[in-house]
Structures are given as C-alpha cells and as structure tokens.
Task: structure prediction
Amino acid sequence: MLIKEACETCHMTKKAVEYYENKGLIKPLILENGYRNYDEKDICTLKEISVLRKCGISIKDIKGILACENKKAAIKKMKYINEIRIEKLRAYP
Result:
C-alpha cells in the first residue's frame, strides 16, 4: 500500500511515517516510479511503534525492542528501567 493508505491504517501523519523510515525502523519497498510500497510487516511495525511511543519509549529504545527476538522481555526490561527512573526522581525532589 502507498503512504497515504499506510497513514490512514496506522493513524499517523505522513511526516511520522517518513521519520520512522529515516530512522531505519521500517524499510518499505521502493517501486520503479519512486513510490514506497508498505507491506503488512511495515504496517504491523508502525502500529507497534505507535503504541510504544504513546508509552513514552524513545526511538532508540524502540529500535532495540524491534530488533529483539523476545519483544515481551525487552518491553519488561524497559518498564523496569522506567520504574527505577521514577523512583530516583521521587527520592531526589
């Protein structure tokens, strides 16, 4: 699917989709005419990115999560790290 449909499907802006592509999080097929074709894998990844960003996870950390074979464990680790950060902030007002 082309970028317009990918944006509608994932509820993202064109700018956001292009940003994630530039960061190497998705790699759509570039057609002969220069258009990008987003497949189901790209769409699933964009939806995952959307959820992770809403949880406040950085692009760098998302890249690590997406590269990890055990995403559930990677997300648990991120949750644990964030909980530690919150506790540190509470301890030092």
